[in-house]
Amino acid sequence: MAYHKGKGKKGGHRGNSNQGGDEIIRVPLPKEGQLFGIIEQALGSGWMDVRCSDGKVRRCRIPGKLKRRMWMRVGDVVIVQPWPVQSDERGDIVYRYTRTQVDWLLRKGKISQDFLSGGELLF
């Protein structure tokens, strides 16, 4: 009689564990033409006022796939993709960072505490 000698669960852990204590966090950073931003005001219908790292406040839209997947609140750090037309006034929210990802960005110097508290972004 043959018995199945699998892991017991689908998608079980298959080694490759992090034994060295190295920090492995995959945090997406803004690509070419994208900016860091902080949500300042929720306007409804998937629109937010976002203060971007270049000092401008843009009215940004939350695309449907993000709107259904995650909640956005005032004070969240996001990645903004300015529109090709009206790039100083409008944009799309591409990604929202979690609290641990924001802490990582602060530690690595990608954003500053001044930016989070209402000042400008310092690199």
TrEMBL record:
Keyword check for Protein biosynthesis: yes
Ranges of Basic residues composition bias in the record: 1-13
PROSITE patterns: IF1A, S1_IF1_TYPE
MF-aspect GO terms: RNA binding; translation initiation factor activity
Coiled-coil segments: none
Pfam family for this entry, one: eIF-1a
Lineage: superkingdom: Archaea
Annotated keywords: Initiation factor, Protein biosynthesis
Ranges of residues in domain S1-like: 25-98
SUPFAM superfamilies recorded: Nucleic acid-binding proteins
Annotated region (Disordered), positions in chain: 1-24
Family classification: Belongs to the eIF-1A family.
Reported function: Seems to be required for maximal rate of protein biosynthesis. Enhances ribosome dissociation into subunits and stabilizes the binding of the initiator Met-tRNA(I) to 40 S ribosomal subunits.
Protein name per Swiss-Prot or TrEMBL: Translation initiation factor 1A
Source organism (scientific name): Thermococcus profundus
Gene name, Swiss-Prot/TrEMBL: eif1a
